[in-house]
Write a sequence for this structure.
């Protein structure tokens, strides 16, 4: 059985919904399980969560994009991972990432690039979405990969939307498809 840990911070619940979508996609493949690791509002995770990450075949990073970057809570977690970096504990593991912001663009790519850099420092192997964008005149907001991201998963949640309202159903379906992609890569490459 392959295990994928999803470590994320969520300020308002929108990124939690995105993380759950990724986990649902992962869980849809036989032989692969997902484990959610929520970074708390103080930027902390438990020792059991660190152990989960250390034993995972893949780690998916997630955070809202605030002011053009991952949240400080996620950054605190990332800084704490330097002990693993020093020993290259996550070397050759699969990595991927996702983010959410209130604006359609919202500089989400800055957050995804930060996740890619973090993964590269840990000598991990990055997986993008593998999804074509919905970019025709006929495209609708709830289409798969409407935001057109290749490097990692993006979602948009209006700033005044409650946790039960966002992201859109299309962004959640995109998260599920991304989870399937990650799980397929883990299943097929990590033998």
């Amino acid at each position: 059985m392959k295990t994928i840990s999803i470590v994320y911070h969520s300020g308002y619940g929108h990124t939690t919904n995105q993380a759950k979508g990724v986990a649902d996609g992962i869980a849809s493949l036989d032989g692969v399980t997902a484990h959610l690791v929520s970074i708390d509002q103080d930027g902390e995770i438990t020792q059991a969560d660190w152990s989960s990450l250390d034993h995972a075949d893949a780690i998916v990073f997630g955070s809202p994009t605030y002011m053009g970057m991952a949240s400080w809570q996620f950054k605190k977690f990332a800084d704490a991972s330097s002990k693993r970096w020093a020993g290259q504990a996550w070397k050759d593991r699969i990595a991927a990432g996702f983010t959410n912001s209130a604006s359609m663009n919202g500089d989400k790519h800055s957050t995804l690039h930060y996740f890619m850099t973090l993964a590269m420092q840990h000598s991990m192997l990055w997986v993008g979405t593998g999804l074509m964008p919905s970019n025709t005149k006929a495209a609708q907001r709830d289409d798969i990969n409407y935001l057109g991201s290749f490097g990692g998963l993006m979602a948009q949640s209006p700033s005044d939307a409650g946790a039960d309202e966002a992201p859109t159903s299309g962004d959640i379906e995109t998260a599920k498809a991304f989870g399937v992609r990650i799980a397929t890569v883990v299943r097929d490459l990590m033998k």
